[in-house]
Amino acid sequence: MALKFAVADLTIQRIVEQESPYLPALDMFPDLTPERLGQHRPWLKQAHALDDNDMLVLCFQSYLVKTPHHTILIDSCIGNDKPRPGRPAWNMKTDDTYLRNLAAAGVSIDDIDVVMCTHLHVDHVGWNTRLDNGRWVPTFPKARYVFGEREYEYWTAQNAKAEVPPFADSVLPVMEAGKADIVSNDFAIGDHVRIMPTPGHTPGHFAVGVGKGKDDAVFAGDLMHTPLQLRHPELSPRFDIDPAQAATTRRQFLERYCDTDTLCCPAHFPSPTVGKIRRMGDGFTCEAV
């Protein structure tokens, strides 16, 4: 059974594809010192966010959100059959974990109305498409796929210089199938779902707020990757395209939702992932619910 969070008239479920050690903490964060890591090591290990080798543990997952009117998938993880030679755990993957966990949440690929990609990195677009007789086709045949305009333009330009494999196999086939909506920052779905620009990790990265008239829950995408960034919002990973902007955006986001009832749903925090943002000194914490 997938863990289900109920808030107001919404239900939220995590669809986990992988959860494992990802990168050494000191490699992932150029500005993280061994001394600072040492200060935080005990609670990070207790939270299962750091292993015995100082590797950060990350979860790769989607969120399934049911509003009174729509079934929405936020981010689509890693995907199968995709050449990712630089990442052995993702390269030409063929396991059924993701679709099995989607089924365990009581949902089939035909039930998804909207797929929203917070940004177009490899681990957020992978299940947008699946291999069918040698062609990439949309995995969710009845869904509209939502891509941010600025994000789409950025990766279109990058792909024109040299092919970006996740863009080529997981975004462009959706466009070619006529299933995509390229949206501006004022995009909303009814009165329950809206996007909010959170640039820095990528130029067009957005978070997603859900709830009627207020943010009952917010989906942070890659605004932050590990609970360590709550304590030190200035820490940006080496794959943020604009680390300084990402740090500013992250603190603004945390200040906005700190000490509110909004459920915060980050993309990569280890299980149980979801919590409420609370202040802790000059930083924050995410109290699990």
Can you tag this structure with a few keywords?
289 residues, alpha/beta, Metallo-beta-lactamase, Chain A, 7-stranded mixed beta sheet, 5-stranded mixed beta sheet, 16 strands
Describe the 3D structure.
24% of the residues lie in helices and 30% in strands. The model has no long low-confidence stretch (mean pLDDT 97). It is built from 8 helices and 16 strands. The strands form 4 sheets. The chain has a 7-stranded mixed β-sheet. Strands 10-11-12-13-14 form a 5-stranded mixed β-sheet, with no helix packed on it. It has helices at residues 25-28, 34-46, 97-104, 149-161, 165-170, 172-176, 228-231, 243-257, and strands at 4-7, 10-24, 55-66, 71-74, 114-116, 129-132, 135-138, 144-148, 180-183, 188-189, 193-197, 206-210, 217-221, 263-266, 275-280, 283-288. The chain has a single domain (4-288), classed as Metallo-beta-lactamase, Chain A (4-Layer Sandwich). The protein is of the alpha/beta class. It starts with a strand and ends with a strand. Strand 10 (188-189) and strand 11 (193-197) form a beta hairpin. It is globular and about 50 Å long.
